[in-house]
Write a structure and sequence with these properties.
four-stranded antiparallel beta sheet, two-stranded antiparallel sheet, 6 strands
Length: about 170
């Protein structure tokens, strides 16, 4: 989920969310941090799981937020295909993976590559994921602020730092 528990907006108790998910038939429910990172076992494809999560959030918590589901195999591919794995391992808090609901507009990707080349950040696209390294920090990066669904022309874009990505994969693989 994107935009959960950031400041006063979209407040959601992770224990209450876990209870609601179990009541809805999800199993192996685990959350990571307080920002809407969830790992579950559920018999559905990612699109069906996304729709089910959005429904549950609206009905149980009156929250309408972007949701993007990934299978364990998709998450493994994102980690395996990281073109900047050395940077990600060396500086995981400054390394982002932006997950996308669909492949981005190729022109937007070309613009981001050119923009990244003009600053100190690194950027690469890989299917439904974007990889970016922000050595001065994510909050100071002009590139990070451009990794939005509107600019990329995709339905949903949500970013996680490398530490979170690898932790979610570890949880999903357990």
């Amino acid at each position: 989920m994107r935009g959960i528990n950031l400041g006063a907006a979209n407040r959601l108790s992770m224990p209450e969310l876990r209870e609601a998910l179990v009541a809805e038939g999800f199993s192996d429910v685990a959350t990571y941090m307080q920002s809407g990172n969830i790992v579950v076992s559920y018999e559905a494809n990612p699109a069906e799981l996304t729709a089910e999560m959005k429904r549950l959030l609206v009905e149980r918590f009156e929250l309408s937020v972007p949701v993007l589901a990934q299978t364990c195999e998709q998450l493994e591919a994102v980690v395996r295909e990281n073109p900047f794995s050395d940077l990600a391992e060396r500086d995981p808090k400054h390394f982002l993976v932006t997950f996308l609901s669909q492949e981005p507009d190729p022109r937007a990707v070309d613009e981001l590559k050119a923009f990244a080349a003009a600053c100190d950040d690194e950027f690469a696209a890989g299917g439904h994921a974007l990889y970016s390294w922000h050595p001065a920090g994510i909050h100071l990066s002009k590139l990070a602020s451009r990794l939005s669904e509107k600019r990329l022309k995709v339905g949903v874009a949500t970013a996680r730092n490398w530490t979170t990505v690898t932790k979610l994969l570890e949880m999903a693989s357990a």
